[in-house]
Amino acid sequence: MLFKQFLRDGSETTPVVLVTGGTGYIGSQLIPALRGLPYRIRYTARNVEYKREQFAKYTEVMEANFTEGADMSETFKDVKVAFYLMHALSERKGFVAMEERVAKVFAKEAAKAGVERIIYLGGLVNPVNPELSAHMESRLRVGEILRESGIPVIEFRASVILGSGSISFEIVRALVERLPIMVTPKWVSMEAQPIYVEDVIAYLVQSVELPLEGDHIFEIGGKDRVSYLGLMEAYASERNLKRYFIRIPFLTPFLSSLWLSFVTPVYARVGRKLIESIATPSVVYNKIAKTHFLVDPIGVKAAIHKCLEREEEVLRQSHWVDTLSEHDIGDDKTALHYKNRIVDVHTITLPLFLPNPFGPIERIGGKTGWYHLNFLWEIRGAMDVMIGGVGLRRGRPDVHETKVGDTIDWWRVEAYEPGKRLRLIAEMKVPGRAWLEFELVEGDNSRKIVQTVVFDPLGLWGLIYWYALVPIHWILFKGMLKNIKKAIYAQADIR
Questions:
Q1: What pTM was estimated for this model as a whole?
Q2: Number of domains comprising the chain
């Protein structure tokens, strides 16, 4: 019987479904959807310090790099179904070679462990178009490598995925929200068949116990065929925004990617790979998926409506640090983009023996000040008062106690976990929304204080405001964290 395993004494054990890329966009939405199936759920992350706490009660998480020679026996132990959702799109160079290496290690280890089914989510391409981007060629090659393992593979080739937080949707959303007049390159007219993320998840979940043998490739897309220009027009219609589009055919993928990196939530290198990929059609030609799955994909208008409806829900459920890929969490990363927001991250590493490392952060603001260049905070506060804002005059009610809802100068406490986490939302006058968050991240041999500044710009003026202040922000927030580290050592009386 498929997906059953028995120990030598004859007792039955619960098999495992493995989700690689479990902290990614699709993986993090797939994991909760798998809970109704009779499996233990395990997912992999390259850095388990950034595991998703909301999965902790019903999942196992394992650190896995999928590099040649690594011991993967525990990762694949008792695994009967394995999802391959890993992607190297954000790599600076050599992403094609890396994707091939990772796929080969995964396939080899899965075969060694006796995995009975692999489920892979790739990209949809036009089978009659031989000119594919390196990104799409790599996606197809990964599918081939997985099939070469001898394990039955179900490969989904998906068109543009729409969902709050998906790269494709956030590109469209950022462009339309921020630019009343847009110059559009040739690639925006290419036809696609966008599919809502929940429909993708439904296909993936149903494929776990689908009664099929051997390898199968399913093309999946939404109800409508539409171009990226059509997507932008549909978004503008849903938001009741009047937008004008001017065609500029000579914009190359490189120039387009640089433009996207300034205006939208993607990096230039990621944007370029995406643009090269959507420069060819991605529509469903083989409709066999309809005969095997109980999924009725919705159309573009309904998908955009759901994306906008769920945006704040997704924002509340996710953690600021979780919004960054594991590649991008480092000791010092400035002005990263995610969703419609700009995220500025700095970290400091501390030894385990320091007592109460979060203490100086819990006393921040008011008479304590902001640990670096306080005169700049005073100037900004005075400017805020001049334009009708709250400035710094509110101080804080109690330096020894912090509660959700408290005011700290021009901030308000939005989330607080004693000794671990403090998130502040700005109430000063800014063209957008702003947050400042500190979190203590515990590791095996050290601790990290992660300082995250998040800015959700309101239109083009919001972007201009942020980028005009980038040098000041870099000096201010980096210096703040450096002096917080000194305060942590000082309170422990370490010279």
A1: 0.66
A2: 2
